[in-house]
Amino acid sequence: MHIPDGFLNNNLAGGLLVGALGMLGYCFSKVFKTVTAFVGISAGNNGNTNTRFNSFGSSKGVNKYFQKLVIIALWIFAFQMFNIPVQSATSAHLIGGVFAAVLVGPFLGFITISSVLVIQSLFSDGGIIALGANIFNMAFIGSFASYYIYKILSRNYYIAILLACFFSVLIASLSCLVELGISGTISFTTAFKDMMKLHLAAAFLETIITLALLKTFKKLIGDINE
Amino acid sequence: MNKKTAAVILPIFVVILASLFASKSPDTLEIMAINYGFEGKAKEVISLFRDYSFPFIDNQFVSTFLAGIIGLFFLFVLYRMMGKIIRCFGK
Q1: A123, B51: Cβ pair inside 8 Å?
Q2: CATH 1.10.1760.20 is held by the domain A10-40+49-220
Q3: Which of residues 16-75 of B touch A (CB under 8 A)?
Q4: Does pTM surpass 0.80?
Q5: Could you report the predicted ipTM of this complex, rounded to two decimals?
Q6: Alpha helices per DSSP H over chain A
């Protein structure tokens, strides 16, 4: 679902790129804040900080946490390379938003998927100017939408993952279509049905791979917050 | 095998599988572009590794595999840098 350069008009692509950089900056500042807040404080939570970052308490903790983050990113990169045929002459690949967001939360999930997208743009998988749009579709919607869907439904793990995968892929493809529509590349109304139909298959694929990856990750690495 | 080693080997293994078996069919957005006739709008960006391959390597498997491994390496380096910066801020 990587948008190449040229599909979007420059204003939209540029605007989204600026937005994506701003969001990345915000996410990084949030990570920095929690890191600095936890260093030297053995107990207590100042209310703002997320308990997920407990392991940042020491520099060793930071190391360990980053090892897990890089493993998540490497897995997503590798699996995004693996295009799987979904229909006749069509292939789809994992987005990985749910996988990252469930393990590390939406902010770090956003950073993780964005890092993968940045590297992919070097391989011209997705354009450079269109990188902002790709980050918005796959990293922002992929991690934030899926994280909150997962959180709301977290009472049943499987249903939560299923619906998070389903809706995140469909919302991401919808936003991709809206961007293409705004740019005048495609007519939103005529393409809507086709786009959803195509991505329904991609959503199924996402669910299956995400469940398998989460299981494998927990087996190999254990809980990320340990 | 050490579990962590397995976690690092897994993506390399997936890259090998991807360079052997990944579908060459256009992906969901590309097929939309083809069906709706706007695939010509895509601008070719000058890049050393177009579509996960090197133009100077003839063998499809080798070239995709190499591109994948280089991608994984770039990501690894990116995270090393991020980790260093975060640790600086933490101190």
Answers
A1: yes
A2: yes
A3: 17-19, 21-29, 31-33, 35-36, 38, 41-45, 47, 49-52, 64, 67-68, 71-72, 74-75
A4: yes
A5: 0.92
A6: 10-38, 59-81, 97-122, 131-134, 146-152, 157-182, 188-220
